[in-house]
Design goal:
Elements lengths: L2 H11 L3 E8 L4 E7 L8 E8 L3 E3 L3 E2 L4 E4 L5 H4 L18 E6 L5 E8 L1 E8 L4
Antiparallel strand pairs: 1-2, 1-5, 2-3, 3-9, 4-8, 6-7, 7-8
Length: 129
């Protein structure tokens, strides 16, 4: 899961708002749209799509800078509520879910996370969001 690529775009443009654009439970897809108020990217949205999402805790809208980081394995049990997932499923190993934290630009966690297998991202016209 390449979070450096995603964070590079978020660092460069520093969008002012994150919105949940789509959650499709049957397909296991979570799409987050990051938008800028003003500037050269005002008419665009940076879409971050997590695939094979197992569990998540994210707000519908967040008016803060966001970056992503992998949760340390020692912290995963305290983040993820007791459920039907065992430690091997959330270990971050190949084929396991990666637990990704939403943090601010300084790396301080916002208190939200996504457990998914992969992520993709790219800029799209904002009117399509």
């Amino acid at each position: 899961m390449d979070l450096d690529h995603v964070n590079a775009h978020l660092e460069r443009e520093d969008p002012s708002q994150m919105r949940v654009q789509l959650f499709d439970a049957s397909a296991g897809v979570l799409r987050l749209a990051f938008v800028c108020q003003g500037g050269p990217r005002e008419d665009d949205a940076f879409l971050v799509q997590f695939k094979h999402v197992a569990i998540m805790h994210v707000p519908t809208v967040l008016h803060e800078s966001v970056r992503f980081s992998r949760a340390p394995l020692k912290d995963v049990p305290s983040l993820v509520p007791a459920c039907s997932f065992d430690a091997a499923e959330l270990s971050g190993a190949k084929g396991a879910y990666q637990v990704v934290l939403l943090t601010n630009a300084a790396g301080k966690p916002h208190g939200y996370y996504v457990a998914a297998e992969s992520v993709t991202a790219g800029w799209v016209p904002r009117k399509g969001c």
